[in-house]
Amino acid sequence: MLKETLIKATEAGAKVMQEYFQGNFLISNKEGINNLVTEADHASEKVIFEIIKNEFPDHFILSEEAGELASDSNYKWIIDPIDGTVNFAHGIPLCCVSIGLELDGEMIMGAVYNPFINEFYFAQKGYGASLNDKRIYVSEEKEVIKSCLVTGFPYSYLDHHNGPLDVFARMIRKGVPVRRLGSAALDLCWVAAGRFDGFFEHKLQAWDSAAGFLIVQEAGGRVSDFTGKKYSPYQPHIVATNGKIHDELLKWIRDEV
Ligand code: IPD
Ligand code: CA
Ligand code: CA
């Protein structure tokens, strides 16, 4: 029932995205310029909530726009009703719904759906990761210099030492291709699918990475903070790779190469 509900809620949120996409919808600013929220984010969140609360009224919910619906349940749903809102607002079809499910503080299931290119990613702890029901695996690349990477930039804190711009410039100067898609959840799924060899970002929130980090791990990859420690979605730093370039990428990020 948990899996069915997760899939149903993810599909319902994505359907709302499709209904609003390229139409006229209200866009407002959160704190920070271009940190946007649209009518569609709220509408997607609403249908996702309805489905989850209908099946599991006592579960804990953490969602980007509504915040926490706290309860003492061992289950916690972590929801990004639209990841890649700036893309969405500009009619760029690189955006998705992302929902992760924790049990006793461990991520046990995650789903990420981009309806515009019809890619549904799913993972269950211990059972692997899939794209449209076909198993996916991370890439085989062993060296950062030959890798294709992806990153994202926060709305603030760009300029500090070893911050997002420093690390990005270091890699670009050495000729490493580093892309920027604008959706952390999709960045993670594209690592899981073997398209990117690695992803890193300096300031994510739990809802950006909750589903995607499990999907990378279940596709055979590794996810950590910038020190190489076990990843927690409740701290800002993330490095997610095919595993083979992980330790080397950590050194590039910390300026130790
Ligand atoms: C953003 C995206 C982006 C990342 C930002 C996030 P949103 O989420 O995941 O890729 O760089 O840090 O805030 O605002 O589109 O849900
Ligand atoms: Ca997000
Ligand atoms: Ca969002």
Say which molecules are bound, naming each kind only once: D-MYO-inositol-1-phosphate, calcium ion
Second-tier CATH architecture of the largest domain: 2-Layer Sandwich
The CATH top-level class label of the largest domain:
Alpha Beta
The number of helices is 7
- Structure classification: alpha+beta
Rg over alpha carbons? 17 Å
Largest sheet geometry:
8 strands, mixed
Percentage of residues in DSSP E strands:
25-35%
Poorly predicted parts: none
Give an account of the 3D structure.
- Helices cover 32% and strands 26% of the residues.
- The chain has 257 residues and is of the alpha+beta class.
- The protein has two domains: 2-135, Fructose-1,6-Bisphosphatase, Chain A, domain 1 (2-Layer Sandwich), CATH 3.30.540; 144-253, D-Maltodextrin-Binding Protein, domain 2 (3-Layer(aba) Sandwich), CATH 3.40.190.80.
- Strands 4-3-5-6-7-8-9-10 form an eight-stranded mixed sheet, with helices on both faces.
- A hairpin with a 3-residue loop joins strand 3 and strand 4 (67-69).
- Helix 1 (2-20) runs antiparallel to helix 2 (39-55) and helix 5 runs parallel beside helix 6 (206-218).
- The protein is globular.
- The model has no long low-confidence stretch (mean pLDDT 96).
- The site of one calcium ion (CA) has 5 residues, from strand 5 and helix 6.
